[in-house]
Design a protein that fits this description.
Layout: H1 2-17, E1 23-29, E2 33-39, E3 45-51, E4 66-71, E5 76-81, H2 84-89, E6 93-98, E7 104-105, E8 112-113, H3 115-123, E9 128-134, E10 141-146, H4 150-163
Antiparallel strand pairs: 1-2, 2-3, 3-4, 4-5, 5-8, 6-7, 6-9, 9-10
Length: 165
């Protein structure tokens, strides 16, 4: 009887787990922006819009890439990437600016309400979003995210979110 219960429990777990492994996939890829979908394994999914910065030097920076992400429908803005916590730990202040608009103070990997930022990005009055990291050494580290293609990718983000419900 004990073996039967173990086999039955294993069968139930296998049936429930079949085809429900966590995943990350790209569902839209534009020139500057991509839409990624993340599945948690329990059937729930979330979508986000992501852009990699335009670096002055080709290739990946030696400390890892930094990404600007937009979630939907919350329109939260997140700065994420490799080694980001250590990179920002030594910084004094980090700001995000759309075009010539007002700078907004941000923290790494902490989503900020971004409806006004997204609206500015969609208005296409500017060509880039700049993230400046001030290390109090005189020259800030600047990450630039190009805006051409953002509107199309944002539409794809909305479609991804609608399909995930």
């Amino acid at each position: 009887m004990k073996n039967f219960i173990c086999i039955a429990a294993l069968a139930v777990v296998m049936v429930n787990a079949q085809g429900r492994e966590p995943f990350v996939k790209t569902v839209y890829k534009g020139k500057n922006w991509s839409v990624i979908q993340v599945g948690t394994g329990d059937g729930a999914t979330q979508c986000a819009l992501r852009s990699a910065p335009n670096y002055l030097e080709p290739g990946t920076p030696k400390y890892g890439s930094v990404f600007l992400e937009v979630s939907y429908p919350s329109n939260h803005i997140t700065l994420s990437g490799e080694n980001l916590v250590m990179y920002f730990k030594i910084s004094k202040r980090t700001t995000l600016r759309v075009g010539q608009g007002a700078a907004v103070v941000i923290n790494p990997e902490v989503p900020i309400p971004g409806k006004a930022i997204v609206d500015s990005m969609l208005a296409a009055k500017s060509k880039a979003v700049r993230v400046e990291i001030d290390f109090d050494t005189g020259d800030p580290s600047i990450h630039t995210f190009s805006l051409p293609g953002f509107s199309e990718a944002y539409t794809a983000l909305q479609g991804c979110a609608a399909r995930g419900k």
